[in-house]
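Hello forum,

I keep getting stuck at the same step: I have a sequence, I want structure tokens, and every attempt I make locally crashes halfway through. Rather than fight my setup again tonight, could one of you with a working pipeline run this one for me? It's a single chain of 114 residues.
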Amino acid sequence: MSTAPQPAAAEPRERALEHPHPNAAKYLTVATVLAALTAIEVWVYYVRAMRPMLAPVLLVLSACKFSLVALFYMHLKFDNRLFSALFAVPLAIAAAVLLALMALNGAFAHFVGR
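Reply #2:
Ran it on my machine without issues. Output:
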């Protein structure tokens, strides 16, 4: 009889359930995209022609940046879809409430010609 520890039987199954983590190049690509989105946000703020659409454009760009950070740096892209829904659904509700409040306060009046 051998008293040497035996490998756990569940180990191969656990390894099969693990997801491959992105490499450093993928993280640098995401960081570059985030930096580009930030540069676009700054550019949009300083361009006078974009003033009428400033808030919606910045909201969309911010939502894109939020999604990238949540998907890659918080590893939601590789986890169960339920975790992604726990981030996406409240974001959509918050955006809808914000846009509704902006509409109620007349923030979009210049789009409809008032």
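The mean pLDDT is 79. If your local run keeps crashing, start a new thread with the error log.
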